[in-house]
Structure formats: structure tokens, C-alpha cells
């Protein structure tokens, strides 16, 4: 199985049409059709349900497409990091959960732009669960995750500063009139909860009792969309401070009491060596 064939395959998946994929790749349509048929023969599965106008993926095709994209992304990342001229070149891939402590990462990137100006930084915003998956697949050099989190198999560096949990609610709501939110205030509330691993357990510990009953009406991995639900009055979002700017909006952040303060950590694999570009970034963040 050649990388060239994987690129043909992913182009067809994106375009849903062999002719458009062939035009994009500047190859003939029969060439792509033959390569795809050979690929299916090699794998022993049908990847496409071929229609008259569009091509749809089978279940096996959907799985293979996801894997092919990861293989190509890892290949491109590896090639970029080993093709070095003078000085440090390449790319640094950083996946981050939403956290105010990303300001430290931003400062390190600024330092890196001065010490290694040919290095490019690729930021990928997602939740901590996806950060781990992508790091395990070798697609990210670093991850920024909120604590508490399992760091087994990772080197880590705690980032300076903390943030706190609270609720994001409409200003005109009953909770929006409070200065702090106590466990009793969540009784009977419609709650929108973070999907971050450990978030539910952290809130359960804060509640300190099983008698407080609330309804989880939705979950989120990135806070912006959850904030739209809060603005629409769907429910009370349990969230971290400092992520959504509530100025000039109908939302307000109200901290929990007792305070639940957390910090973030930068993690990187113990098993995979850092590229020169990634090592330069790590040096920059340790310097800052």
C-alpha cells in the first residue's frame, strides 16, 4: 500500500467524485479508478458504494478513511520535521483544551519565533480526551490538558496560574443574580456539563452529597457552543472561568463556593523523541 494511493483515496473521499478528485490531483480518471480498485482488492473489502453521480463510503470505507487521514498527517508531519536546512526548521503540533493558561504557550511561541523563525506552530483546539488520542497516534507533539488528569506515559510541565470552576448563565436568571454558587443552588437545575475526563467526578466531589439532584441536558467539548445554549436559556453551563468573554452579552460567570481551582499541564510523550522543532519549543516554554 503506497502513500500515493492513500492520497488518491482521501481526495475521492473529500470530493465524493472520481472526476473532481482526478482534476484536483492532475491525474487521469482511469488511473484513480484503477488504483482504488487495486486498493479494495488488496484490502479484501469494498470501500465505496458507487452511485451514478456521487461515491458514498461503506462502513469499512469510513473506518479506512479516518485511518488514512491519520497516516498521511503523521507522514507529512515527519517529513516536515526531518527536512532541515540551516538552523531549526519544521513544525510543532500542539493540541489544547480551552484554558486561560494557554497564554503561557502563546508567550513561548513568540519566543520561538525569535529563536527559531523558520519553525511553524500548528494549534489544534479540542478537548483533553481528543488531545490524548491524537498524541497516542503521533499527530501531536504536545498537549495542554486541565487537571486532574492521568499523565501516565507522559512527561509533563505544570503551567503557571490557575482558573476556577463556576457556572455560565443568563444575567437575568436566578443564578445570575448570585455572587457565588453553592451546591444547594444546583438543586433542580438543568445542567450543561463538560465532557472533559474527570470533570463530572470533580463536580461530584464539590457537591459533597448525593442528595443534590440536577438534570444533565447536554454535554460539550468546547465552551463556545455551550455558551450559545446558555444564552438561549437551555441550561446552566458548568465551566471554567476566563474562556468566554461575557462583556456586552446576556451571560455572566458566577464562581462556585467552596472554590474549585484547577491548573493546566503541558504533556508530551515519554516514548517518542521530540523533533528539533518540538525540542526548541519546549526550551522556549521552560525559559519563559
From TrEMBL:
Keywords: DNA-binding, Membrane, Transcription, Transcription regulation, Transmembrane, Transmembrane helix. Coiled coil: none annotated. The chain crosses the membrane at residues 222-244. Residues 1-58 form the HTH lysR-type domain. InterPro entries: HTH-type_LysR_regulators, LysR_HTH_N, LysR_subst-bd, WH-like_DNA-bd_sf, WH_DNA-bd_sf. SUPFAM superfamilies: Periplasmic binding protein-like II (SSF53850), Winged helix' DNA-binding domain (SSF46785). Belongs to the LysR transcriptional regulatory family. This is LysR family transcriptional regulator. It comes from Schleiferilactobacillus harbinensis.
Amino acid at each position: 500500500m503506497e502513500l500515493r494511493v492513500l492520497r488518491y483515496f482521501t481526495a475521492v473521499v473529500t470530493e465524493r467524485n472520481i472526476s473532481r478528485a482526478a482534476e484536483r490531483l492532475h491525474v487521469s480518471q482511469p488511473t484513480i479508478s484503477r488504483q482504488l480498485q487495486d486498493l479494495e482488492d488488496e484490502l479484501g473489502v469494498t470501500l465505496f458504494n458507487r452511485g451514478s453521480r456521487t461515491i458514498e463510503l461503506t462502513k469499512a470505507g469510513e473506518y479506512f478513511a479516518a485511518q488514512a487521514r491519520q497516516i498521511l498527517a503523521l507522514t507529512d508531519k515527519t517529513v516536515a520535521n526531518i527536512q532541515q536546512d540551516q538552523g531549526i526548521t519544521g513544525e510543532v503540533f500542539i493540541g489544547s483544551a480551552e484554558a486561560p493558561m494557554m497564554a503561557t504557550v502563546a508567550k513561548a511561541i513568540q519566543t520561538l519565533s525569535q529563536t527559531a523563525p523558520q519553525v511553524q506552530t500548528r494549534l489544534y483546539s479540542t478537548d483533553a480526551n481528543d488531545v490524548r488520542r491524537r498524541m497516542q497516534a503521533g499527530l501531536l507533539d504536545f498537549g495542554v490538558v486541565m487537571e486532574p488528569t492521568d499523565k501516565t506515559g507522559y512527561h509533563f510541565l505544570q503551567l503557571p496560574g490557575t482558573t476556577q470552576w463556576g457556572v455560565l448563565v443568563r444575567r437575568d436568571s436566578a443564578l445570575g443574580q448570585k455572587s457565588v454558587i453553592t451546591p444547594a443552588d444546583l438543586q433542580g437545575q438543568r445542567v450543561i456539563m463538560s465532557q472533559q475526563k474527570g470533570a463530572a467526578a470533580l463536580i461530584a466531589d464539590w457537591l459533597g452529597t448525593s442528595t443534590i439532584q440536577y438534570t444533565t441536558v447536554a454535554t460539550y467539548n468546547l465552551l463556545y457552543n455551550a455558551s450559545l445554549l446558555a444564552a438561549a436559556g437551555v441550561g446552566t453551563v458548568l465551566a471554567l472561568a476566563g474562556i468566554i468573554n461575557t462583556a456586552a452579552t446576556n451571560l455572566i460567570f458566577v464562581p462556585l463556593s467552596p472554590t474549585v481551582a484547577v491548573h493546566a499541564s503541558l504533556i508530551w510523550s515519554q516514548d517518542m523523541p521530540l523533533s528539533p522543532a518540538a525540542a526548541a519549543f519546549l526550551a522556549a516554554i521552560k525559559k519563559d
